Amino acid sequence: MVEEKLEYWRWTESSHVDSDRDWRDARVITLGIDVGSVSTEAVVCLDGELYAYNTIRTGANSPDSANLAMEGVFAKTGLTLEDIHYTVGTGYGRVNIPFADKAITEIACHGRGAHYMGGPTIRTILDMGGQDCKVIHINELGKVTNFLMNDKCAAGTGRGMEVIADLLEVPVTEIGERSFDIDEEPPAVSDICVVFAKSEAMARLKEGWSKNKVIAAYCRAMSERVCSLINRIGVEEDFIITGGIAKNIGVARRIESILGVKARETTFDSQIAGALGAALFAYTLVTKKNKG
Amino acid sequence: MITAGIDVGNRNIKVVIMKEGKIASRLAGTAGFEQREVAFKLLASAMADAGVTRDEVAHITATGMGRNALDFADSQVTDVTAAARAAAYFFPGVTTIIEVGAEESRGIKTDGKGRVLDSAINEKCAAGSGSFTESMARALGMELDEFAQKSLESTVQIPMNAQCTVFAESEVVSLIHQSTEKKDIARAVHDAIASRVSSLVRRVKLEGEVALFGGMAYNPGFCKSLMDKLKVDHLKIPEQPEFADAIGAAIVASKRAA
Amino acid sequence: MIAHYGYKDAQGEFYITIDTGKCVDCEGKPCIKACPGSVFIEEEDPYGDEVVAVDDLKRKKIMYECAPCKPTRDRPPLPCVVACPHGALSHSW
């Protein structure tokens, strides 16, 4: 019997429906789709309020991933595409979503989504995605005033974390907890290129470091790297972390401690910010159009 | 006079023994974790090959990223200077040197007599060095030699968007899924690294003939891509180009011993 | 909006910063033509303003794209920065 290769990078897909509400009562139903390099999210808003969402791993192409994520929401709510008034696509695959009415950059959508998730006092958003890392400043309306993005290099992204999860054969969902299960915080792996960091991690293991210690050193390297990005435009409170890595407390806590700033807690899945922002932009576009 | 040059890289260590300005022996080994011990053993073997004893070696100069780890060396010299001296030894008058090793690449401008005028270096990003090619060949399930050769057969130019080795691996996988031919992917990889290396060279200004050092000089696919990018019709490559820095260090050693 | 296009990698920080608020009323957006590497594009931002941005295809290799304008010695002033009448453009490296 062939044993299936374990996929250590695999994180949990999630979905949610606000069961207190019925979409049939809504005036405007909008859909936001965020096709990222690693995950795809679909969010439905009723009259500009979050109603349902679904996150999946991005497949081989953007249209299929967008469809799959959308069907996930529809299956749980009974909605169909005909019920949707307007759809905005965002993310890396945003121009390849066949049923989207408009594409909007992920920077603007993340700003808008995080403003909703964290409230109007949010000024700085750190979004750590599968293949990028963004720092965004927004004003009290959720409009972007300053941003910086890093999508050239895997260091400081979810993909970089997956590489180390695979190397150590530790599920990526356990990385956060395990990174604190150590006697003393080790120095960060010194190299910030994922390829070289991987060789360094292998060297530390050979020297006899425990897996947890290597994980801690890697989380610290990643946090330092991300903080140096943040420091380019600064951090203004309130601060929120979104994206898949927000769920990795090994990185999130270390970032907070390096910056000396606590990140705002949110009850929503941190991965939906972009799609949520897209659905909110869709709502604005529909209401503007109706007024005009 | 007899001298030794040792190039301590992250990946490999190379030793050269020079006797009266001629290369008497050369030897390379994997660096591993004990750079000093590995270098010491390689030096002993290289001396034996050259038929010389430790007492006859007038001066040992170390170069490479790990050069300070060798407490038995008499002096150190930077990689850039070592490469410049080696270029003057092999190709006097050539002022533009490119060096692409496993984990670093450089563009160097010299006066043609071994003096460095300027340099631009990439040593911290895997995408700008030989290890990029190795990762991509692995992603394609090909041996490095085959990968390098196949690239030459390609007549199509396809762009690689990823600038990072980790992301490029995924891009190669999706190119395979799109049934792109292996030879075309191989060429795209070599074109990508050649374009990064050529931009380093352009920063120090490309002038006249170009010398290429480092292990990547063995890769004909990369050399072809690099010549295309630089718009030159040939590259001056010495025999065993990966020993260039060690040879340069041995030349520095003979100057310092004199 | 202050937009930072580019990246940080192990070699350093390579960002072109554009103060897009200054682009809105800029006639002809001369930086676009001034750049020999065609790095800049005009686009409508999500809030409906016509601004200058760095082409997505150039962003991830901006250090290489800009290299011809940045020799290690005797660097002349950058053509894009010179062309911008509003001082909206700067480079981090």
Which properties best describe this structure?
heterotrimer, A: 292 residues, alpha/beta, Nucleotidyltransferase, domain 5, 2 domains, four-stranded mixed β-sheet, 10 strands, globular, C: 93 residues, alpha+beta, Alpha-Beta Plaits, three-stranded antiparallel β-sheet, two-stranded antiparallel ribbon, 4 helices
Secondary structure: elements and pairs:
The complex is a heterotrimer of chains A (292), B (258) and C (93).
Chain A: E1 15-17, E2 29-35, E3 39-46, E4 49-57, H1 62-77, E5 86-90, E6 102-103, H2 106-118, E7 124-128, E8 133-138, E9 144-150, H3 158-168, H4 175-178, H5 194-207, H6 211-233, E10 239-242, H7 249-259, H8 273-291
Parallel strand pairs in A: 2-5, 5-6, 7-10
Antiparallel strand pairs in A: 1-4, 2-3, 3-4, 7-8, 8-9
Helix pairs in contact in A: 2-8, 3-5, 6-7
Chain B: E1 2-8, E2 12-19, E3 22-30, H1 35-50, E4 57-63, E5 75-76, H2 79-90, E6 96-100, E7 105-110, E8 116-122, H3 130-139, H4 144-153, H5 165-177, H6 182-204, E9 210-213, H7 220-230, H8 244-257
Parallel strand pairs in B: 1-4, 4-5, 6-9
Antiparallel strand pairs in B: 1-2, 2-3, 6-7, 7-8
Chain C: E1 2-9, E2 12-19, H1 31-34, E3 40-44, E4 50-54, H2 56-59, H3 62-66, H4 79-83, E5 89-91
Antiparallel strand pairs in C: 1-2, 2-5, 3-4
Provide structural commentary.
The complex is a heterotrimer of chains A (292), B (258) and C (93). With 292 residues, chain A is an alpha/beta fold. Chain A has two domains: 124 residues, ATPase, nucleotide binding domain (Nucleotidyltransferase, domain 5), CATH 3.30.420; 141 residues, Nucleotidyltransferase, domain 5 (2-Layer Sandwich). Helix content of chain A is 38%, strand content 19%. In chain A, strand 8 and strand 9 form a beta hairpin. In chain A, helix 2 crosses helix 8, helix 3 runs parallel beside helix 5 and helix 6 packs across helix 7. Chain A is globular. Helix content of chain B is 42%, strand content 21%. Chain B has two domains: 108 residues, 2-Layer Sandwich (Nucleotidyltransferase, domain 5); 146 residues, 2-Layer Sandwich (Nucleotidyltransferase, domain 5), CATH 3.30.420.40. In chain B, helix 3 runs parallel beside helix 5, helix 4 crosses helix 6 and helix 4 crosses helix 7. Chain B is globular. Chain B has 258 residues and is α/β, with parallel strands linked by helices. Chain C has a single domain, classed as Alpha-Beta Plaits, CATH 3.30.70.20. Chain C has four helices and five strands; from the N terminus they run E-E-H-E-E-H-H-H-E. In chain C, the strands form two sheets. A three-stranded antiparallel β-sheet of chain C has the order 1-2-5, with no helix packed on it. The longest helix of chain C is centred in the C-terminal third of the chain and has 5 residues. The model of chain C has no long low-confidence stretch (mean pLDDT 90). Chains A and C meet through strand 9 and helix 6 of A and strand 1 of C. Strand 9 of chain A pairs parallel with strand 1 of chain C, so a sheet runs across the interface.
